[in-house]
Structure formats: C-alpha cells, structure tokens
Amino acid sequence: MIGAYEKDLRFWAEEGTPIDFAHELFADDLDRIEDNMMRAMKRVPVLGAAGIKRVINGPMIWSPDSNVLYGPHPDLRNYFCCNGIIPGFSQSGGMGLMSAQWMVDGESQYDMFAWDVARFGDWADKAFTKARVGDQYANRFAIHFPNEEREAGRPLRTRPVHALQQALGGVFGLNYGWEHVQWFSDAPGAKDTNGFIRQNWFEPVGRECRMLREHAGIIDISNFAKYRVLGEAAADWLNAIFANNMPQTVGRSCLTPLIGVRGGIAGDFTVTCIADDEFMIIGSGMAERYHQRFWNMVPMPDGVTFESLTDAMCGFNVAGPKSRNLLQRLTSTSLATVNFPFMRSQRIELSGVDCIALRVSFTGDLGWELHCKTEDQLRLYEALLETGKIFGAGPVGGRALMSLRVEKGYGSWSREYSPEYWPQEVGLAGLIKLDKDFLHKNAYLAIKDNVPRETLSIVEILDVTTADATGGEPIFDKTGAGVGRVTSGTYGYGVNKSLALCYLKNVKVGDELDVMVLGKPHRAVVLAEPPFDPSGAKLRG
To answer: Exposed (0-12), middle (13-18) or buried (19+): which is 45, by Cβ within 10 Å?
Structure first.
C-alpha cells in the first residue's frame, strides 16, 4: 500500500459536506500523485513491477493545524465538538474517551488544550484556514523543528506597531492569530533558520537579554489577555471564581490560580483593583476562549459587567535595572519604590499617553507593565524607544522573554501550568485561600493533601555546546530510571547557563541527572533556586 500527501492538493465541499454524502470515493486521478509514486518506486523498486490493484481517492478532514477540534464550543450551550480527526484509526478511540470524560465529569484527565476548539477564534476565517490546511497537508511528513514558525496564511492580525517593528528588524511568529515579534535582527527582512541545534537567532536573542539585564528592554506584551470587570459586586464575583482573595484596595494587585474541575491549574492571572468597583485581569492570550468557559460557570451578579479588552488595549513591559530611570523621563508620576511599590498599579501618563501601569514583570527584573489603548500603541512605543536610547535600552522579543522568565523560574500557561498539575506540584498552593468559597474548591480539597506526584523544578544542563532543551525531553537519573521531562528549555544569557524547567520525581536538590538533548544524555544538576535574583531583591527594588 502506498499513501501520498501530494503538493497539488484540492479542496472539496468548501461550503459544507453534501447531506447525502457517505463514503463515496472520487475518480482515481493518479496523475496528481505521480511524483510521489515515482519516489516510492525508487525507494522500493519492486513496486515498479507490482502493478496497481486498487486506487482509493477520498476526502479527508483537516483543521488549520491538523489537530482535532475538540471540546464544548465556547460560544454555544450544550454543543460539544469532536471534529477534524484525520487518522481516524489512531485517534478516534482516544478522542472518544477524552470526550466522554469531559461530557460526564466536566474535564478530561489529560491537558488537551492543543486540540481544544477554543484555541481558535473568529480570526481563523476561511482564507486563513485554506492556507494553513494546504500547508499542513503538503508538509504532513516534513521534518518539523523546535521554534518553527510557518508562514502560510500570514500575516492575519497585526497591531499598530507592526510596521515599525518590521523596520527595526523584527522576525515574527504567530500567537492566537496575531503577528508577534520573536526576535530582532540586525537588518529588516531576516527570517528564522530551522534546525535542532542553535539557529541564527541565538546570538541576537542573547544581545536582547543582556541589554535588558544590564540596562533595560522594551517588550511588546500585547498578546496577554486583558479583561475589565465593573460593578458594585465585581469583587464578590471574582472571589467566587479565583482561589486567591481579590485585592480590596485601589492600586493593589494579586496573583491567583484558577482551579480546574479536577483540582488542577486551569489558569494563572494577575488581578488589579483599578477603582472601588473596577478590576483588571491579565492572563494568557491564547487561552482567552478556553477561560471563557470558566467565567460562564459562576452566575454574574446584577449590575456586574465583564469585557474583554485584548483587542482594545495593547501593552509593553519595560524592565531592567534602568527601567525606572527610563520611564521617569516620560512621566511626572513618581516611580520610586516608596511611591510605587512592587505589585501595585496606578493610572499614569507617559509621554502624553494614558496608561494603566502595573509594577510587575515576567522577566523577573525591576519593571513595569504599561497598558494603553490600541490607538495609542505606536505613539507610546516610539517614545519608549527614543528615550530608551539614552539608557542603552531597545526592543526585546518573545524568545528573549522566554529565556528571562526561565532564569527566574517562572512558569507559563500550557507549559508548566495546566489542569493536569496540582497546585502543590507547581508551587501555587500558597496562593489558595480556604477561608472562602471559590470555583471548584471541593475538587481542590480532594487533592490538596496528596503528596506531589512530581514537582516543578529547575535544572542546569552542564555539557551542552550546540543545542539547548526546548521542551518535551525525557530526563533520567544515573541508574537509567525515568524521573521527569522538560517543559521549557532555553539558554539563560543573563546567568550564562543552559537551563530547563521540568517536572521531576524521586530526586533532590544537587542530584545529577541526564537530560536527553538531541536524543543523547547531557549531564544536568537540580538547582536549589532559580539562578537569577532568587531573593527577588531586583524585582522589588
């Protein structure tokens, strides 16, 4: 049997499968896969003399990323999806089990976000879908590399700073439909190279990281999901959803987990009290429609409104030891720690742009998040970049942010945080307040005293020279027993270490392990704490 994923694919039934279609086949059309057949005969010569007994040419169902479209539709009630299953024999049984669990128990036992229908929004229109499906089909069995960004169907959604970021040498990736800078090259027009070892972006990303750690950096964080909750009972509603106590004082922020149906981590958020009856929530942008299901699980009190601001607002993180001096040039608001402490917020004006400023930073360094109206994004970015020159600061991309947050040991949604992991396994149990009711509290109580099955840890990989862990690599102890896996891996340019966040079991601080980078064991050691600013002195300074 010979099967082919030809380059010359054809779309069928674009307006919907005919109601009377069952399992009919199309005409043979062997000319379309002739190149594939010739390559097969070259590889297995006996095929050239075997002859053709039967041709099967029928339709296949594809999604934009070739994964199943699965789960409750975020915008409909009692409408469950399990569509787009391509290799039915290998996937249908598992999808049937996961679907049954979700429908009966309210959540599947495994983190299925990569296949969740909520990973797409209305932005995934027909043109985008056709372009991505065509690319996925034609490259079904191509070698795919870590950090690979495919260009089909792009650009789809851009923000006002896109053209300027391009001119600055920005190399973009796709995040929930948005073009988002991954790194900045020395000249416009650069593209990623792809491979399993360090690529052309390795040194430029290093320059961005070192610039931020030594001076300051300006990171576009517009992809974060942003929400506004208004109303006299807004705090009551949020306290009924989130596991932490909501801030009661204007200008204060808190970090809080969202607990899943089985007691795991369904999300992590920063919640800020903007006014007596107004709160701002910041979370994972790609999980916005996924989290929509949780908002709908708790009845909203009369007079309370919930609004997504993700499209209406953009944001920047300005971080690094000189970030305060940089921003102080642009505002009359005092940014001194005594006036603007860590985990506080204020409405401030920066170079004539109204912003909500939060004293937090995903880099783990001194810094502020600045959120403004989308129409003001370009003006704010230009002001930050121009003033940044005085302090040796400049633009920083997403890959540098990945390196910076791993140096600090910060977890990320869909990598370190997911419904599969218990709060005590990820280090978030201390943020859960049991003196109140919150969504899925009973599920958490059922597992809260369980011994962690594995623990989120950080390791230094000691003998890598050409590649770093990227995520998914297995980890073994010195006896050869499997003890965990990498969730995020990168080179820590600020600490000059190859690092990995990972889940480990049956190990302790200082143990030597083997991390399988490029399929080969690389010596690693379990660290007692993140290598960058473990005490948080810089973050709070």
So the answer is: exposed
pLDDT, position 463: 87
DSSP state of 252: B
Residue of 165, 215, 168 lying closest to 388 (CA atoms): 215
225-309+422-450: CATH, from 3.40.50.150, 3.30.70.1400, 3.40.50.10540, 1.10.10.10: 3.30.70.1400
Taking the C-alpha atoms of residue 482 and residue 498, their distance in angstroms, rounded to an integer, is: 21
Using DSSP, state whether 362 is helix, strand or coil: coil
Statement: residue 89 has pLDDT above 80? no
Per-residue confidence (pLDDT) for residue 188, from 0 to 100: 83
Contact 122, 73 (CB under 8 A): no
Q: Among candidates 322, 9, 304, 315, which has minimal Cα distance to 152? A: 9
What is the pTM (predicted TM-score) of this model?
A: 0.94
Fold of 454-541: Elongation Factor Tu (Ef-tu); domain 3 (2.40.30)
CA–CA separation, 476 and 89 (whole Å): 32
Task: Name the band, by pLDDT with cuts 50, 70 and 90, for residue 17.
Answer: confident
Measured distance CA(213)–CA(495) in Å, rounded: 10
Burial of 105 (0-12, 13-18, 19+ CB in 10 A): exposed
E-strand stretches of 327-422: 345-350, 353-358, 367-373, 394-396
Domains of the chain: which residue ranges? 69-138, 168-190+200-223+312-415, 225-309+422-450, 454-541
Please answer whether residues 335 and 325 qualify as being in contact, where contact means their C-beta atoms are separated by less than 8 angstroms.
no
Question: Tens digits of per-residue pLDDT, 268-300?
Answer: 999 999 999 999 999 999 999 999 999 999 999
pLDDT at 190 over 90: yes
What is the CATH class of 168-190+200-223+312-415? alpha beta
Q: What's the pLDDT tens digit per position in 468-511?
A: 999 999 999 999 999 999 999 999 999 999 999 999 999 999 99
CA 417/CA 487 separation, integer angstroms:
10
323 close to 216: Cβ distance less than 8 angstroms = yes
Q: What is the mean pLDDT of residues 177-188?
A: 94
* Sequence-ordered list of residues with C-beta below 8 angstroms from that of 358, at least 6 positions apart, any chain: 253, 270, 272, 282, 344, 345, 368, 369, 371
- Alpha-carbon radius of gyration of the chain: 25
Q: In angstroms, rounded to a whole number, what is the distance separating the alpha carbons of residues 243 and 422?
A: 13
Neighbours of 209 (CB within 10 A): 26
